[in-house]
Design brief:
There is one protein chain. The protein is of the alpha/beta class and about 160 residues long. It has one domain: Phosphoglycerate mutase-like (Rossmann fold). The chain has five helices and six strands. It has a six-stranded mixed sheet, sandwiched between helices. Helix 2 links the parallel strand 2 and strand 3. It is globular and about 45 Å long.
């Protein structure tokens, strides 16, 4: 059994004249990341690894979640190939995961997250919003062989207000 939790980075700022990869979270984004991460403990597997895109907005979201779920920040694995908006690239990264890991929490970007959730989950999601959390369980012991899974839990910030 493999468990995958996909979390879209929280709300980021477009106000600064910087590279897309360097965009920081807004105050609202920081607040939403704290809100969602404070409400997920009961939906996490016993053990897991955290992977994050190297983009600042994703890595900062991952750090906030790690702090709130008491996961060591230094154990977050930053992956350059998770800085993608393409679900096929995202799928490649996930399917290449070492089978020693049964559960992954992954911080990434749209449209890759929403499209992956709709391809591999059994609940249609129009759009995974910023700081959105989607947990999918796969009846497989091999990441490379995952296909349609069961959507276990969806948590979006607007539902927590």
């Amino acid at each position: 059994m493999k468990n995958l939790i996909l979390i879209r980075h929280s709300k980021s700022s477009w106000d600064l004249p910087i590279q897309d990869k360097d965009r920081p979270l807004t105050k609202k984004g920081i607040k939403k990341a704290h809100l969602v991460s404070s409400n997920i403990l009961g939906f996490l597997p016993k053990t897991f690894v955290i992977w994050s895109s190297t983009a600042k907005r994703a890595s900062d979201t991952a750090v906030i979640f790690a702090q709130n779920i008491q996961y060591p920040e230094e154990s977050i694995v930053y992956k350059e190939n998770l800085y993608t908006f393409d679900e096929n690239q995202l799928e490649k990264v996930i399917k290449s995961c070492d089978n020693d890991f049964d559960s992954i929490i992954l911080f990434g970007h749209n449209a890759a997250i929403t499209n992956f959730v709709n391809k591999f989950g059994d609940v249609f999601v129009h759009n995974v919003p910023t700081a959105g959390f989607v947990s999918i369980q796969f009846d497989s012991d091999d990441w490379d062989k995952i296909n349609k899974g069961k959507t276990i839990k969806i948590i979006f910030p607007k539902e927590l207000k």
